[in-house]
Design a protein that fits this description.
GO terms for molecular function: ABC-type transporter activity. With 238 residues, this protein is an all-alpha fold. It has helices spanning 3-15, 18-38, 44-70, 73-78, 81-85, 91-122, 128-153, 157-175, 184-195, 207-230. It has one domain. It starts with a helix and ends in an 8-residue tail after the last helix.
């Protein structure tokens, strides 16, 4: 971890228009929860469906995309990464710091709003709020690592990330039974199911697979990103 790199990255993320993108999605989730509560739709089943389909199924991967690629892709695209690489800072340390910033942003803009939205709907009933916040926390960390790696691997990180988030995670991983085992959002729902006692929440992936998968994917993605940065020369070429 490097505090200078972290500080610069936080300023870049929170000072650009990305902050509005990061804030808009969780605010929309909370607004929907408030609206449902006002019209009398604040039951346990509705809360679980909202958390599954919108909080973890849609918002979380999109926030992962915004934060994960945002901490590194713009610097690679505009060439300012050269200034950072010219400093006596180990490349793996840069990758780890960028990952930590992305992960912290996802936790702040996803796990916390997820808890608040579910709590507004049904309070602490059946541990739904705590469960989905727990799932969003660890799934968000995995997304941060994966999208950081995407940002390092390709200059078309946003396009690749959108395809991954919407097509794989949203469509294939959400509805094709065999693909669910390889879906981060499904791993997050498995963790949520361990905390929540709601009968409306049924995990499709075993905890014995989901928990190690989150750890392995996170570690491998961050290490790979660090190694990839080692391959970038000060001219921006490999």
């Amino acid at each position: 971890m490097n505090s200078v790199v972290a500080s610069i990255t936080y300023r870049a993320m929170l000072g650009r228009k990305r902050i509005w993108l990061l804030a808009a999605l969780p605010l929309a989730l909370i607004a929907i929860a408030v609206l449902l509560r006002l019209i009398g739709g604040g039951d346990e089943n509705t809360a679980v469906r909202l958390m599954e389909k919108f909080a973890i199924g849609t918002i979380l991967p999109l926030l992962g995309l915004i934060a994960g690629t945002g901490v590194i892709s713009p610097e690679i695209e505009d060439g300012t990464i050269i200034h950072l690489l010219s400093k006596p800072i180990p490349r793996p340390s840069i990758a780890l710091t960028k990952f930590a910033v992305a992960a912290s942003l996802i936790v702040a803009f996803s796990a916390v709003p997820t808890f608040l939205a579910a709590y507004l709907l049904i309070g602490t009933e059946a541990g739904v709020a705590a469960g989905f916040a727990f799932g969003a926390l660890f799934a968000g960390i995995a997304y941060a690592a994966v999208f950081l790696l995407v940002g390092v691997l390709t200059k078309h990180a946003v396009v690749v990330g959108v395809i991954y988030a919407l097509v794989w995670e949203g469509a294939i991983g959400g509805y094709v039974p065999g693909a669910r085992k390889l879906s981060i959002q499904q791993w997050g729902q498995t963790l949520a199911d361990q905390v929540s006692s709601s009968p409306f929440l049924k995990a499709d992936v075993a905890l014995s697979f989901a928990a190690p998968a989150i750890v392995i994917v996170t570690v491998v993605a961050v290490l790979w990103a660090g190694q990839r940065l080692r391959g970038l020369s000060l001219t921006g070429d490999e």
